[in-house]
């Protein structure tokens, strides 16, 4: 069985970390720190709970003077980097969590600290409460960070202000109106760092969920400028593509499906046990005298707890289909139990989607193993 990710925080890590803190701050009581970390609730804590618990325990074992303790954290990062522990060190994300938790009323110190910390481990979660509390200060600060020499600070400028960043608090005023952050995306859309460009695309995709017309207008302006920017546009429009937004589909050359026919659709596993796999097959006929560029997907309608069905779209392919061609396609969909989806027994459906056009739905049953 794979090791649980939350177990990156274990006795070895806490012991090594305590030793390092003691080098920076000789008054640090590492025995008390370790004993406080591994309390009776520790085993039941999930990853983010453990991060928060470490942040609180660290604060309890420092001076509780935010400026002094932040200076210690920055010295710790300097030391860790000398030891060749580099940026994006996920296990040290309790550093930004500490800033989020204890620095919200110390704006200047916190912003300076996050600019340094994010070069070591991302502050994308920690910066969001500051954007919400200090929007007039933070939007200009993000734009300033967008010109920073370090790519992880530039990434923070766009990742931190994503309106709907997964596993993080939303930013309601940016969901309502993303205009304040559009100059940041404009500035970073052609960034030399792929990591930064990907963040721009993810921000666009967030915006599209509440303000699709904004993203459609941006996509029309950005498309065709470079291969890299075309990727940003397409990745940023992925939700709109899955929703079959015609203007976006046309931008990428996905046109009419009047010559496309779905034939001999068959569900090969009409009864699917939890833990097993749905298998279906069909013929895709291009009856045109010309080749057709097709975005081929399928919609899976999952049973919900209240008896209704909820659609999720899965991509099959994007490619050119030859004139007067018939292509046999077989797909499988796992119903293995996963933590991110709860399965409900009963009726489910599957459909084929071509260039945003959904063909007939077909029933199958999910049954108990």
Written overview of the protein:
This protein is an alpha+beta fold. 43% of the residues lie in helices and 21% in strands. It contains 16 helices and eight strands. The chain has a five-stranded mixed beta sheet with strand order 2-8-7-4-5, with no helix packed on it. A three-stranded antiparallel beta sheet has the order 1-3-6, with no helix packed on it. α3 (47-60) crosses α5 (94-102) and α12 packs across α13 (212-222). The model has no long low-confidence stretch (mean pLDDT 95).
Keywords summarizing the entry:
369 residues; alpha+beta; five-stranded mixed sheet
What can be said about this structure in brief?
The protein is of the alpha+beta class and 369 residues long.
The count of DSSP E runs of length 2 or more, i.e. the number of strands, is 8
Strand ordering within the main sheet: 2-8-7-4-5
Termini, distance in Å?
21 Å
Alpha carbon gyration radius:
25 Å
Structural class: alpha+beta
Mean pLDDT: 95
Number of helices: 16
Quaternary class: single chain
- Biggest sheet, open or closed, and with what strands and sense? 5 strands, mixed
Shape: globular
Q: What is the string of helix and strand elements? A: HHHHHHHHHHHHHHHHEEEEEEEE
Fraction in beta strands: 15-25%
List the helices and strands and how they pair.
Blueprint (H helix, E strand, L loop, with lengths): L10 H14 L5 H8 L9 H14 L5 H17 L11 H9 L4 H11 L10 H6 L1 H11 L5 H9 L12 H5 L5 H7 L5 H15 L3 H11 L4 H10 L1 H5 L3 H6 L8 E8 L3 E3 L3 E10 L5 E12 L5 E13 L3 E10 L11 E9 L2 E11 L2
Parallel strand pairs: 2-8
Antiparallel strand pairs: 1-3, 3-6, 4-5, 4-7, 7-8
Helix pairs in contact: 1-2, 3-5, 4-6, 5-6, 8-9, 9-12, 12-13, 12-14, 13-14
């Amino acid at each position: 069985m794979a090791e649980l990710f939350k177990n990156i925080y274990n006795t070895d890590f806490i012991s090594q970390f305590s030793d390092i803190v003691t080098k920076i701050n000789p008054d640090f009581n590492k025995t008390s720190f370790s004993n406080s970390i591994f309390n009776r609730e520790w085993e039941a804590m999930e990853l983010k709970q453990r991060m928060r618990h470490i942040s609180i325990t660290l604060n309890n074992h420092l001076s509780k003077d935010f400026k002094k303790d932040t200076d210690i954290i920055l010295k710790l990062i300097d030391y860790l980097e000398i030891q060749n522990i580099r940026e994006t060190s996920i296990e040290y994300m309790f550093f930004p969590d500490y800033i989020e938790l204890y620095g919200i009323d110390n704006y200047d110190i916190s912003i300076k600290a996050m600019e340094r910390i994010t070069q070591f481990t991302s502050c994308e979660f920690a910066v969001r409460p500051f954007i919400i509390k200090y929007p007039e200060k933070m939007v200009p600060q993000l734009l300033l960070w967008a010109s920073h020499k370090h790519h992880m600070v530039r990434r923070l400028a766009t990742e931190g202000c994503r309106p709907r960043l997964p596993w993080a608090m939303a930013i309601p005023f940016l969901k309502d109106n993303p205009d304040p952050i559009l100059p940041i995306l404009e500035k970073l859309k052609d960034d030399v760092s792929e990591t930064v460009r990907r963040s721009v695309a993810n921000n666009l995709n967030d915006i599209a969920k509440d303000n699709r017309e904004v993203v459609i207008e941006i996509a029309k302006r950005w498309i065709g400028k470079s291969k890299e920017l075309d990727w940003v546009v397409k990745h940023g429009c992925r939700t709109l593509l899955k929703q079959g937004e015609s203007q976006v589909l046309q931008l990428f050359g996905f046109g009419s499906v009047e010559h496309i026919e779905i034939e001999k659709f068959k569900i090969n596993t009409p009864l699917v046990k939890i833990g097993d796999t749905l298998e279906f097959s069909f013929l895709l006929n291009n009856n045109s005298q010309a080749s057709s560029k097709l975005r081929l997907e399928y919609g899976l309608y999952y049973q919900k707890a209240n008896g209704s069905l909820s659609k999720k779209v899965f991509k099959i392919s994007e490619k050119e289909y030859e004139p007067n061609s018939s292509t046999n396609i077989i797909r499988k969909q796992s119903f293995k139990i996963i933590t991110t989806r709860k399965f409900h027994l009963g009726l489910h459906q599957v459909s084929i989607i071509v260039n945003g056009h959904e063909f007939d739905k077909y029933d199958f049953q999910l049954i108990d193993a």
